[in-house]
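User: tokens in, sequence out, please.
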């Protein structure tokens, strides 16, 4: 059985992430999306919210599971029984860090390979950070996210605005 772990912050999940999940689900028996809990100190969404959003958008993909993790990615991957870690590559700027991460993980766990999927050209510019930046200025984000996720992002920023205004 081929099991892939797709780790990330997913703060929030974008159409670019979804494209990678969908393509991985087609080539692997099972995909476990690993939501990293401790990486960003101040994420917009809590780990549980990010897990829930991923569950919502992947509900129709039967071989996809969503879990939360902290600590070493390799420990999580072993715990899931994964043979592969999947990462998405958007541009050369992703490459150096991703290669270093993959090489290091290979030294720690030679039985687990890293598989890079190139981004869908449509989403090659897209990241969660850019979406948050646009949403923070009240810009339109519907072309970057599933509709229900876009609504949640807008609600978060509206909530934050209301807090600032008191
Ligand atoms: P991280 O902070 O670990 O990079 P992200 O949630 O930003 O977490 O991304 C998770 C994975 O998804 C990474 O491998 C990243 O390169 C990939 N990814 C993010 N956005 C896209 C996109 N638009 N197209 C393809 N891959 C993407």
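Assistant: Sequence out:
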């Amino acid at each position: 059985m081929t099991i892939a772990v797709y780790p990330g912050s997913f703060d929030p999940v974008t159409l670019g992430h979804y494209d990678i999940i969908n393509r991985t689900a087609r080539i692997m028996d099972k995909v476990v999306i690993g939501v990293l809990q401790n990486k960003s100190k101040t994420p917009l969404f809590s780990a549980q919210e990010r897990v829930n959003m991923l569950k919502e958008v992947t509900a129709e993909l039967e071989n996809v599971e969503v879990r939360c993790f902290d600590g070493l990615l390799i420990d999580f991957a072993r715990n899931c029984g994964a043979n592969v870690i999947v990462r998405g590559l958007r541009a050369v700027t992703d490459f150096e860090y991703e290669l270093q991460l993959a090489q290091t993980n290979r030294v720690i766990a030679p039985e687990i390979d890293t598989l890079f999927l190139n981004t869908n050209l449509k989403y090659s510019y897209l990241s969660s950070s850019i979406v948050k930046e646009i949403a923070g200025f009240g810009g339109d984000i519907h072309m970057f996210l599933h509709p229900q996720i876009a609504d949640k992002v807008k609600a978060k920023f509206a909530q934050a605005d209301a807090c600032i205004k008191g």
